[in-house]
Amino acid sequence: MVFSVLRQAAALLLLIIPSVLCQSSNLPAVPPGVFTASTRIEIKTNASAAWNTLLNFPAYPDWNPFVRSVGTKSIYTYFADARNRRAIVLSPLNLTLPDQYPVEGRNLYLRTQTPPLPLPVDSSTADNPLNTQFAYENITHVQHDLLRVAWKYVIDPKLLNAERWQAISDIGDGKVLYESREVFSGVLAAVLRDFEGEGLQKSFDAQGQGLKLFLER
Ligand SMILES: *[C@@H]1O[C@H](CO)[C@@H](O)[C@H](O)[C@H]1NC(C)=O
Ligand SMILES: *[C@@H]1O[C@H](CO)[C@@H](O)[C@H](O)[C@H]1NC(C)=O
Ligand SMILES: *[C@@H]1O[C@H](CO)[C@@H](O)[C@H](O)[C@H]1NC(C)=O
Question: Would you give the DSSP letter of residue 208?
Fold first, then answer.
């Protein structure tokens, strides 16, 4: 009796373990920190459509319930963005700059919602002012061959070290896998975890769901 229960338990474990181990990832291995926000979701689309959507900052407001706008220019742009609710990179003369795609080493101003806006969103969806946050980040990786992009906070890394990775992989069958992960460490990480950890996790999940809605529409 005990033996047969044990055998069933072992059989069950054998079923479960491979599915966990087989969760292959296109994200780089990074050291653990104080806490992590992450998500992964399968999307019926092709890799180039998913990758282009991820890099197309001006179109973020059309689908993204977490990152509502991305500016790559100056603090002036940042507020112009917020006013226009579009992720448009403006020059002081109000001309849209041609290059609105991520380039390594360039800074980003993000306007985000933590926790996220309810889905679906589009460019006319208003922010929840109570959940609006701003971040100043640096684009650290744009890996077109690996379909991976990353940016990190421009703050003293001893205070807060957090690099957000996002990756696309073709998993066949007309589907791609979208993954994102940010490991937070540094002196401020525990405070951020206590105040924002849960909301950040929801925002990561919601961005994956928003991307799926948009690409499968
Ligand atoms: C990928 O999907 C997009 C959008 O559905 C489509 O326009 C494009 O032709 C597809 N590309 C390939 C290589 O299949
Ligand atoms: C700048 O662009 C915004 C949005 O397109 C427009 O509403 C505004 O009138 C423009 N300002 C100037 C000075 O051209
Ligand atoms: C942004 O990152 C690049 C390297 O990826 C570095 O050279 C540059 O100093 C960084 N800029 C800021 C403001 O952190």
Answer: H
pLDDT tens for 156-170 read 889 999 999 999 999
First to last CA, the chain: 52
Q: Which structure tokens are listed for 15?
A: 């079923």
For the CA of 48, the nearest ligand: 1
What are the residues whose beta carbons fall under 8 Å from the beta carbon of 124, sequence distance 6 or more?
85
Q: Whose CA is nearest to atom 10 of ligand 2?
A: 94
Q: Which of 75, 136, 137, 138 is the best mutation target for the ligand 3 pocket, counting ligand atoms within 8 Å of the beta carbon and taking the most? A: 138
Alpha helices (H) in the chain, listed in sequence order: 2-21, 47-55, 75-84, 189-215
Ranges in the chain, pLDDT < 70: 1-6, 9-22, 72-100
* Lining residues, ligand 3, CB within 6 Å: 104-105, 107, 138, 140, 154
Residue 121: which of 211, 216, 45, 46 has the closest Cα?
A: 211
Which pLDDT does position 138 carry in this prediction? 87
pTM score, two decimals?
0.78
Query: If you measure from the C-alpha of residue 74 to the centroid of ligand 3, how many angstroms do you get, rounded to a whole number?
Result: 15
**How would you class 6 by CB atoms within 10 Å of its CB: exposed for 0-12, middle for 13-18, buried for 19 or more?**
exposed
The string of pLDDT tens digits covering residues 176-211 is 999 999 999 999 999 999 999 999 999 999 999 999
For residue 46, the ligand 1 atom closest to its alpha carbon is 1
